[in-house]
Amino acid sequence: MTQEKLAVLGGEPVIPADRIPAETYDKLFRKMVLTEEAKAAAMDVIEKGSFSFTDVTEKFQQEFAAWQGTKYAIAYCNGTMALTSAMFAIGLGEGDEIICPTKTYWGSVSQAINFGASAVFCNINDMLSMDPGDIERCITPRTKAIMVVHYFAYPADMDPIMEIAHKYGLKVIEDVSHAQGGLYKGKKLGTFGDVAAMSLMSTKSLACGELGVLVTDDRRIYERAMAFGHYERNNANYIKECDDLKDYFHIALGGAKGRANQVCTAIARDQLKHYDERSRHVREAMNYFWDQLEGLPGIRAIRVDESTGSNMAGWYEPHGAYYPDELHGLSVKRFAEAVRAENGGFCYEGGNFCLHTHPFFKKFDLTHRGKPSRIAFNDRDVREDDHLCDPSLTKYCFSAPRFNYLDREIIDLYAAGYRKVIENHMQLLESDAKEAQGGRWYGSENQ
Ligand SMILES: *Cc1c(COP(=O)(O)O)cnc(C)c1O
Q1: Which residues lie closer than 8 Å to 267 by C-beta, 6 or more apart?
Q2: Which of 76, 108, 211 should be mutated for ligand 1, with most atoms under 8 A from CB?
Q3: What is the CATH code for 7-33+274-351+394-428?
Q4: For residue 368, how far is its CA from the centre of ligand 1 (angstroms)?
């Protein structure tokens, strides 16, 4: 073991600011990579002024459904709106409960309040994914649905989740925003539940600008989702089986418009063509990165065993598990600070903060009812069980860079940054406040 002064304490960083040429850096890390064809397709929409039409979007939807392996796909202005439509499509309503893992982005489940429904939070497992063993605890006669999130591209354990859903007659929505095209035991994520929805915004693995998609095999769900957000297609050409919707043509039933900007669907058509191949390159690079760190104390890769037929698609936000006991109790917060100082800023602790800790889910009153909206129409206070989601479990993870392709020399450098901090972690013990913060609210200053 070499003793080297850590950069966070004033030593030389492993990767000084000018070490990687700007062009290489951009190629290696940029999420939204556009071909000339994608730019030309976007320009065509701009020149025609056809932002608000649906001709390009209809083509994208057909191609996306074929790629996804579902009968239907509907594009939306963003993923949040696609997920909101999915909630309407399955019939979520007043007094219903919807179970969601507490560690995810707010766009997975905050919309439940728009339907008078209650979000009920369950715990996550070692793969940072919904813990199937914690779902039955959350089920009551009011439970309507499970929101499965394939968090950070780790495929949720769908066999036990679907078994529980069938046993209790629950609807399943999949939020595939982190895992487009990923596989669980050989089957594509987004094809297990009644409906799936996902974001394709510009920092997701499948990056298309500002865009969302909903996919389903169920005609009624498709029609309800269409009527909810797409006034221009809420008509007899699309709404054929849902007789109860036929009085309401030409208006968006959600009271909010979900139409996709065709600049984004034009870009998306091209992105989709390259996505599977690009994802293969990311997985090759990420597996190589984690292989370099195998055997070090304190950290373990969190990755799926691809020989099971599962995979992590475009490996949205690589994370590792952290074991402070193997590093003399060094907090993951201080560990991450030290790695950032070595590698220019790629290591953060904890992922998203647990949703149940946000005041929005504790007390926000959307409609001035004098009661938190989360429980406004429920005869039980679902907040009382929030403490059963053990946040301590979620403190012990950290993020790693995501490489677009395998460049052994540069990836070795990033791995060396992590290795240096581990090999010299004793230097940090004195300056360690020993408090992990457990994550962050994305979009806040402490990104
Ligand atoms: C990004 C994201 C969303 C929301 O998508 P937008 O396109 O940003 O509206 C929903 N769920 C998860 C898990 C996300 O990461």
Answers
A1: 34, 38, 41, 42, 208, 209
A2: 108
A3: 3.90.1150.10
A4: 27
Beta carbon of 177 within 6 Å of any ligand 1 atom: yes
**Model pLDDT, residue 390:** 75
Give Cα separations from 335 to 21, 266, 319, 328, 341 (angstroms): 27, 42, 14, 12, 10
Instruction: Give, in order, the Cα–Cα distances in Å from 206 to each of 264, 312, 342.
Output: 12, 13, 29
Q: What is the pLDDT of residues 60-92, one digit of tens each?
A: 999 999 999 999 999 999 999 999 999 999 999
- 356 in Cβ contact with 386 (< 8 Å): yes
Q: Is the CB of 105 under 6 A from ligand 1?
A: yes
Half-sphere exposure for 205 (CA within 13 Å, toward CB): 32
Whether 212 lines ligand 1, by a CB cut-off of 6 Å, is yes
Is the beta carbon of 178 within 6 A of some atom in ligand 1?
Answer: yes
Q: How many CB atoms lie within 10 A of CB 98?
A: 26
143 close to ligand 1 (CB < 6 Angstrom): no
Question: What was the pLDDT predicted at 297?
Answer: 98
95-147 residue pLDDT tens = 999 999 999 999 999 999 999 999 999 999 988 999 999 999 999 999 999 99
Which positions ≥6 away from 305 have C-beta within 8 Å? none
Ligand 1 centre to CA of 149 (Å) is: 10
Report which ligand 1 atom has the smallest distance to the Cα of 78.
7
Q: Is 368 helix (H, G, I), strand (E, B) or coil?
A: coil
- Cβ–ligand 1 distance for 361 under 6 Å, the answer no
| DSSP assignment of 165-212 | HHHHT-EEEEE-TT-TT-EETTEETTSSSSEEEEE--TTSSS--SS-E
Q: Is the pLDDT of residue 281 over 70?
A: yes
Name beta bridge partners: 397: 321
Does 3.30.160.620 match the CATH number of domain 36-269+355-382? no
Quick check: 438 pLDDT over 80? Answer: no
List the domain boundaries for the chain: 7-33+274-351+394-428, 36-269+355-382
Which residues are registered as beta bridge partners of 276?
none
Pocket test for ligand 1, best of 84, 177, 205, 208 (most atoms within 8 A of CB): 177
